[in-house]
Amino acid sequence: MTGSVSRSGARPPLLGGRKERLDALAASSGKGDAGVSLAASAWRRLRRNPVFLVGAAIIVLFVVVALLSPWLAAHDPSARLLEGQVSRARNEIPPAQEGFPLGGDQVGRDLLSRLLVGSQQTLMVGVFATVIGLAGGLVLGTLAGALGGWVDSLVMRVVDVMLSIPSLLLAFSIGALFPRPSQFTVILAVATVQIPIFARLLRGSMLAQRGSDHVLAARALGVRPRAIVFRHMLPNSLGPVIVQATLVLAVAIIDAAALSFLGLGNPDDSIPEWGQMLGGAQNVIDSHPSLAFWPAGCIIVVALGFTLVGESMRDALDPKNRR
């Protein structure tokens, strides 16, 4: 009977039912994901990730406050409006009162206004240091990954030497080279520390792109090496570097605050900065810990926000996590 069914061309019911089920399963699984790029799929996961949403909310709030701080600050951050309530003999500072929700500092300046204006300085230092470090890392990483040979060896040995030194110690050493500390010296010191991180990451991404199919196809078609580097290898290598920039921005804010705390930042305390405020409070931290608590808390929360966003983006852009 089985042979006659096969000779007549009839299909066994079991195979027919299995084929229909497989076709239905394939159609249902590809209905919502067909043609979705890695970036679109990553954004779809990020929108449902509470860790990313919390970090993004912190960053948005920080940026808005920093940009609007000159208008949000109720008083001049350098004006000693509460100086009459300061008593060095009794070690007293102005307490919280009407118009001054956080009170004043050790010389009678409004603490809340200084925190608001200081957020702008902290954002500027972190962003500029990250951008300069990213630019330097892109140059070195592109040279090493595109040219290879002795250029790659030379660049990587310099990067290895810089990475062998603790980042804060290297930034402190660079900042100490300048005769007069300023905000520019802090930016330059922190940016120099970040260059080898971006250079090594970009170089590794570009080396991975060398053997990819689209690069091999471009070489087979006779595309010029410069066009291959800047049109094919470099754009496809920037994803991990951009994610790393988000994480480095958190480290840059912490390192900049550390340098200002150690006295290598802007010596003019009429222009507040969170690390500078933290350093100025160290002499009275035993009797007035609030002067150190508020700037330190702001630094920790903002760094946490950038770290949460960076880690979420790293997980979302990982092709292994695609479902």
Structure explained in plain terms:
The protein has 13 helices and no strands. With 323 residues, the protein is mainly alpha-helical. The chain has a domain at 65-85 and 94-279: MetI-like fold, CATH 1.10.3720. This is Peptide/nickel transport system permease protein. It is found in: Cell membrane. Its main location: membrane.
| Total beta strand runs | 0
Radius of gyration: 28 Å
Range of strand content: under 5%
* Percent of residues in helices: 55-70%
Broad shape: globular
- The SSE order reads HHHHHHHHHHHHH
Number of helices: 13
The whole-number mean of residue pLDDT values reads 82
Largest sheet: none
The end-to-end span amounts to 46 Å
Describe the structure concisely:
Belongs to the binding-protein-dependent transport system permease family. With 323 residues, the chain is mainly α.
Fill in the keyword field for this structure.
13 helices; mainly alpha; 323 residues; MetI-like fold; disordered N terminus
Structural topology:
Layout lengths: L1 H6 L5 H17 L8 H10 L2 H23 L38 H37 L1 H15 L3 H10 L6 H28 L2 H8 L4 H9 L4 H24 L12 H7 L9 H27 L7
